Target: Helix-turn-helix domain-containing protein
Amino acid sequence: MTTQTKNIKTAQNIFAILEAIAERNQPTCTELSEDIDLSVSSIYNYLKTLENKGYIVENDGKYQLSLTFLKYGRMIRNSYPVMHAAIEPIDLLAKVINEYLSVFVREKHSAVMIHEANSHFAVETPTRFLGESFHLTRSPQGKVILAHMPDEFRQDILKTDDLDTQRRDELERELEAITNQRLLVDDGQTHENIWAVAAPVKTGSEIHGSLMISTIRHRLDDQQARTELTDLLDRTVQEVEHRLVKYDFDDLYTT
Model:
């Protein structure tokens, strides 16, 4: 029992160090010690182990994460068929409409961005949003996925989200509407200055993820522009779904 507890604490320390390195701009061993409340000697031993394993890089006493994380991130991202089916259609659409498009997949209770297509004139989004998690009940890209999940899963999510009765009833009605309408327009409800439209990507009863167009609200004063973007997203989703049915991406990208 003592050994198990010690191993868990060691793992917690390792992840705390990696997260601190990611948040800081090339911290030193002393700075990490102050952040994590471990002795400098303990931090140093962890750092040397991580460096020897290739997970961090040391330059003049400062540390940063290594590109090993990029390798593993790409491997994980490429394991989702929707990534390969969507990348060409949304990259093309982003160039045509000069707006920000993104692809999401479900990971447990979150919608995680795995690809973005951003034109020069599109809404500026922090690079770190790639790989960022958005709760299924609190984002348009998450809600359109949740709406098409099995009812048992939906109910479990709603129970664990600590919602009051009124908010839960509102969310259930919203999810039902998404199921019927397929698309969800978010006109500043999630972010005050952002207009977005999201749609699920499905083949049969399987939900692969979601696509979303985002833009600055004041750029869409014309209702026709909003309608056109919604229609374009719907067509793009249909193209992605067609590709998922037509091609065996699991077989093409097994490596």
